[in-house]
Amino acid sequence: MTPTTVLTVAGSDSGGGAGIQADLKVFAALGAYGTSVLTAVTAQNTRGVDAVLPLPPQTVTEQLDSVLSDFTVRAVKTGMLGTPAVAEAIAEAAVAGRLPQLVVDPVLVATSGHRLGVVAAVERLLPYGRVATPNSAEAAALTGAPVTNVAEMTTAARALASGGPEWVIVTGGDVDAGDEAVDVLHGPDGTTLLRAPRVPTRHSHGTGCSFSAAIAVRLALGDPVPVAVTAAKEYVTRALTGARDWELGAGRGPLDHFGWSG
């Protein structure tokens, strides 16, 4: 059978743990054929981001046109956009109906603290998303309000959903909720809390990229959003668990995308 095609529009991670590289690993792990459009090249590893080179909007558009003219893409996820001009180019494609099942991962700040995107770029694209997947820091940046607990995550999810995306899930891996990792999903069916055991590990580089990529695959395969999000959370929990004892790099290591650790 011909595999389902999914597209990622994001930055490159030279360390392989996040960005385009992580997205393509997730696509392959979950049985989809991955295509890609690079928005930026970064110099980074598990310790942090050393440099970012945004690509010209024309180059991004040319990549996008090339992929979409030849492949039947069933779902699209965006990550690091880099500049408002690149976001505008992607938004134009979304307005034209060329980006089905769009999952917007509003990458604004890396775990190292290095800024990878600007709020204006993400805001330009959010209204066209089927699903938006901000973490607590990104939700705070986009709403202008603190997001430090589950109640504030819920408020942020509702506020962001009112601005465009059909569904918003604010991920709570960085929010203190005891032994649980709690995410807040808000959409047409109301608000739902998704809970999973918190995985004690420092190896969490690329968690957000992997989560949104997994959602995109499940949407491409026909899952409704709540089912896709639940499956993606289960996948990321397994990937975190598998890599918790790895020693790849000296900082925050990557996930076990392929289940190598069983």
Automatic annotation (TrEMBL):
UniProt KW keywords: ATP-binding, Kinase, Nucleotide-binding, Thiamine biosynthesis, Transferase
Q: Name one GO cellular component term.
A: cytosol
User: Entry's InterPro entries?
Assistant: HMP/HMP-P_kinase_dom, PM/HMP-P_kinase-1, Ribokinase-like
* Catalytic reaction annotation: 4-amino-2-methyl-5-(phosphooxymethyl)pyrimidine + ATP = 4-amino-2-methyl-5-(diphosphooxymethyl)pyrimidine + ADP; 4-amino-5-hydroxymethyl-2-methylpyrimidine + ATP = 4-amino-2-methyl-5-(phosphooxymethyl)pyrimidine + ADP + H(+)
Question: Boundaries of each Pyridoxamine kinase/Phosphomethylpyrimidine kinase domain copy?
Answer: 13-255
Enzyme Commission code = 2.7.1.49, 2.7.4.7
CDD domains assigned to the protein according to its UniProt record, in alphabetical order: HMPP_kinase
GO biological process terms on file: thiamine biosynthetic process; thiamine diphosphate biosynthetic process
> One GO MF term, please?
phosphomethylpyrimidine kinase activity
Pathway listed: Cofactor biosynthesis; thiamine diphosphate biosynthesis; 4-amino-2-methyl-5-diphosphomethylpyrimidine from 5-amino-1-(5-phospho-D-ribosyl)imidazole: step 3/3
Q: Enumerate the PANTHER family for this protein.
A: HYDROXYMETHYLPYRIMIDINE_PHOSPHOMETHYLPYRIMIDINE KINASE THI20-RELATED (PTHR20858:SF17), PHOSPHOMETHYLPYRIMIDINE KINASE (PTHR20858)
Q: What name has this protein been given in UniProt?
A: Bifunctional hydroxymethylpyrimidine kinase/phosphomethylpyrimidine kinase
According to its UniProt entry, this protein's organism is Micromonospora radicis
